[in-house]
Design a protein that fits this description.
CATH architecture: Roll
Number of domains: 1
CATH superfamily: GroES chaperonin
Helix content: under 10%
Strand content: 35-45%
Radius of gyration: 15 Å
Shape: globular
Length: 111
């Protein structure tokens, strides 16, 4: 896609290899797979997070708006646009892409 704005019509055009994402889950309390409530203050080992790509720069080659990506929340720059928090990063800081664009015979993850 050559259009660098999001489907929400954000007034932003990303440059170079930058990717703007919106986190899937808010920071704070979360639940384990067994339903146990884990407070936001609990110490957890290094944990990666999923986010949705909302805008990409012209030099980004592997993701496009709408893709879900895996990234390290410790290596991020946050920005707020129209009251919504986003994360800005370089394409090389993404760890994986889960996309509906992959063929039916693949796993759905690019690693």
């Amino acid at each position: 896609m050559s259009e660098n704005t999001t489907h929400d019509k954000l007034p932003i055009r990303m440059l170079h290899d930058r990717v703007l994402v919106r986190s899937d889950s808010p920071e704070g309390e979360r639940r384990s797979g067994g339903g146990i409530l884990i407070p936001a203050t609990a110490a957890v080992g290094k944990r990666l997070a999923w986010a949705e790509v909302v805008a990409v720069g012209q030099n980004v080659r592997t993701v496009e708006p709408g893709d879900r990506v895996l990234y390290d929340p410790e290596d991020r720059a946050e920005v707020e646009v129209r009251g919504i928090p986003y994360v800005l990063m370089r394409e090389r800081d993404l760890h994986a892409v889960a996309s509906e664009r992959v063929s039916e015979d693949s796993t759905g993850l690019y690693l």
